[in-house]
């Protein structure tokens, strides 16, 4: 069995999760504060990948990143960057596709913390960032762990978006889910079964891990 | 001295109500504020600490404008240096007793003194969920004192303490407040609770129609 689709999938999921931890946490914090209408709009846009068919999202990303027009053309002409049919393109698409899995649990957890925790920190002279880092984040650790694992697992299972934006280039964009589809098309059921089993095993372990962790750790910080 | 003359609209059960406060609190002393539930006592403290903003008016502390709607001055809570004891304590579940104090100040000597004052020396490495209600309340008071505030705002600060502990803590607390020259406002719905403190008494009724 060619293991490169498995490694590529794990690499894609790992990088996507890291990027979403970096940009998703501040974004979730920002969204958790205040009730401005434009925040609701942004949250709705972030949540769209949960309900849109992945092929629709992939189609729009393909159009956006196409080097022939618009934003993709500007990227290509200004920075010689072509995102379609490339691994970086897969990363960008995965970040957008998996964003609700990071933002949703983290934002909900932050909103459930009593506002007096942040207020107490402010009266001690601490800035918003210090409060976020030292008080808020440590008290939503179980939700943070759940969000990171779900983001990773969800990226492992991507198909429609990666097929649209990345195609099926061995070693570059051919992730495990594409390899399964490709093997079935070639009537190579043995390979399809191998890739499927590996994906099944990894996601089963991850999801079970989340449930086990939540059973023992995910209690309210004030309980 | 704290001079407060503000107005704030509040969304309440009976519809929108207006909280109007026009008071002066003596500097360097203790003011005991009594009033029924829902009269706006907690909001008064939050207005002074900048945890909520007035719609209009001014708050002057020791001659400095902390809030002035006409001049668009509004100091952040970080810049007001007010110690705040929350009614629900607002302790940080992830921090131990000593970490609460270390988060507020780097002064080790002061931290040790506060631990002694609150009789929490032996519980320094315990987290809030391993403390009794009274111990949690003492920690909330110590944390507010850790920043050596010029203004101390306490919302029902002794409700979970037994009478012996209350008497001991208040005795020590009075010394520390005098030493720091703190202007302290203590809110309670129970007059007996604060009778151990000498100070100005204020019956508070901030909510109007």
From TrEMBL, chain A:
Gene3D superfamilies per UniProt: MetI-like (1.10.3720.10)
Membrane topology: Multi-pass membrane protein
SUPFAM superfamilies linked to this entry: MetI-like (SSF161098)
Domain of life of the organism encoding this protein: Bacteria
Domain named ABC transmembrane type-1: residues: 6-208
Transmembrane segments: 6-28, 40-63, 83-103, 195-213
Pfam families: BPD_transp_1
Keywords associated with the record: Cell membrane, Membrane, Molybdenum, Transmembrane, Transmembrane helix, Transport
Major place of residence: membrane
GO molecular function: molybdate ion transmembrane transporter activity
Gene Ontology cellular component annotations, sorted alphabetically: plasma membrane
PROSITE patterns cross-referenced by the UniProt entry: ABC_TM1
Subcellular locations according to the entry: Cell membrane
Alphabetical list of PANTHER family matching this protein: MOLYBDENUM TRANSPORT SYSTEM PERMEASE (PTHR30183:SF8), MOLYBDENUM TRANSPORT SYSTEM PERMEASE PROTEIN MODB (PTHR30183)
Functional note: Part of the binding-protein-dependent transport system for molybdenum; probably responsible for the translocation of the substrate across the membrane.
Family, as annotated: Belongs to the binding-protein-dependent transport system permease family. CysTW subfamily.
Protein name, as recorded: Molybdenum transport system permease
UniProtKB/TrEMBL annotation, chain B:
Top-level taxon of the source organism: Bacteria
SMART domains assigned to the protein according to its UniProt record, in alphabetical order: AAA
Keyword hit for rRNA-binding: no
Gene Ontology MF term list: ATP binding; ATP hydrolysis activity
Occurrences of domain ABC transporter (ranges): 1-209
TM region(s), chain numbering: none
Pfam families found in the cross-reference section: ABC_tran
InterPro entries: AAA+_ATPase, ABC_transporter-like_ATP-bd, ABC_transporter-like_CS, Molybdenum_import_ModC, P-loop_NTPase
Protein's UniProt name: Molybdate transport system ATP-binding protein
Organism: Mucilaginibacter oryzae
Keywords: ATP-binding, Nucleotide-binding
Keyword Nucleotide-binding attached: yes
